[in-house]
Amino acid sequence: MPMRIARYLAHLPSLALAVVLSCANVAYGSDLPEAPEPFHGVVVSRTSLLLAGGVVASRALDWASTEECLRRSWCHEGELPNALVRSKPGLAAFEASMSALGIFAQHEIGKHGHRKLAIMGQVVSSTVILGQDAYNYYVDKSYPRRP
In CA terms, which of 24, 71, 136, 140 is 20 to 30 Å from 6? Predict the structure, then answer.
């Protein structure tokens, strides 16, 4: 019996949406916004090249700051697995592949008509990475402190 009730409750959101749409007089998505037109111009612009260079530079600094952090006995990587971080070529390959993935995502998003979103994504990504790089270099060398 409880399984039958759960099955009916699973359809409740769909039913509620159908009731709301029927009350709002929305006829088959006529009030919904249209998807942007695909961009047929030049996708690789000066701005996209500068952003791609920024991503590559921030990832290179991330690799260098992680290597600097590993030279300190008290410092450890909090995000990536230790086996990857301890391998210099492995970490370099990871950073290069993440750079390539970011550039590819920017290109694809821009190609589908969302150039501002692609630019915003690259700027936010580079800013976050550069902030972490600055923190890695800024951390006081006398850490850990005793209370």
Answer: 24
